[in-house]
Amino acid sequence: LGVAGGLCGVPMAAFGTALIGNAWALSMFGIGLLVRGQGIADRLGASAAALRPTAHLDPALVPHGVMVGAGLVALIQVGSTLMRHGPGVKRGRDGRIVGALALGGGGFLGIAGLVALLSGVAYGLTPRMLVAFVAYAAFAAFLHELIVGLAAMHSGWFPAFAIALITLLIGSLCGFPMPALALLAGLTSATGPAFADMGYDLKAGFLLRGGGANPAFEQDGRRQQLYTAFAAFAIATCVVAFSWRGYFTHDLFPPPDRVYAAAIRGSAHGSVAWTLAFWAIPGAILQMLGGQRRQMGVLLATGLLIVNLKAGWAVLAGLAARAVWLACRGESGRSPMEIFAGGVIAGDALFSFFSSMKANIRIHRH
């Protein structure tokens, strides 16, 4: 069914995800896809701009503003959840999470500083601007992985490009020079997908190993997965080292790269800040209403950032099928439904993989 849907141009992965994911989050995701796909978001942006002509609101930045508000609230929600136990958070599972987040934040600070030094960007900045750039780059990378990870966990979609573009626009408003902005785009773009993918892998391993029933076996399994990830990273580095020149020679750049370049060349002005701030308000409110578990604001913004009308209908169709299935079969039907959903997603993934391979072969022949 997944392959058949792919042949018809229907994103069956979205349909399958709707059968197993959080219903509230995916409802917002589907609504966001439909609102963007039907052009409603653009019309809302144009209406707001007409009501406030002095603010010079940009209708094209409605989804980005919603994501800014929802993302900031999501960050606060994660922090408050980790700290709600007070001094006791230092112990146990929550303590390990806090330690991991602190280690990650420190690592991003170090990486941002190292990248600035090795690239030579640091030598073109004043000491104050250098400190500001390193701090902002680390925060942007940390926020990027958090939001992309949450969105991927609930919907299976990575809004990595859009989040990186948001951090790029804000960085431009901060006055960072073009080379620094280029590094910022690369650094933030690299964090979210890697974080989400590793989360997928570790959670799949956790389920296959019995859900942590054997702690020693679980720890060893995670360690083996980490070694495998390092090996894959080394292989990917070699592949890029040997293949990048051919791609560059044939002007084979992914579309997001061209958008980043255009955003860096263009100077962000006050209307960008006003637009992001204006539309951040509804995003923040929705995220607060939904809470951390539902992630309604983040998922609505994720849908708004993706132009895929068919995916929106597929998500809503999946949610409707899920409701009917559970109404007829009850909780006993949940396991077969999840197995069916996994098959649909796998079929769609296989179709996408072989389609992309076929397209790449055709490009290289020409």
From TrEMBL:
Keywords: Membrane, Transmembrane, Transmembrane helix
Entry keyword annotation includes Transmembrane: yes
Record-annotated membrane-spanning stretches: 12-35, 56-77, 97-118, 130-151, 157-176, 226-247, 267-286, 298-319, 339-357
Keyword Transmembrane found: yes
Domain of life the protein comes from: Bacteria
Name of this chain's protein: OPT family oligopeptide transporter
Organism from which the protein derives: Nguyenibacter vanlangensis
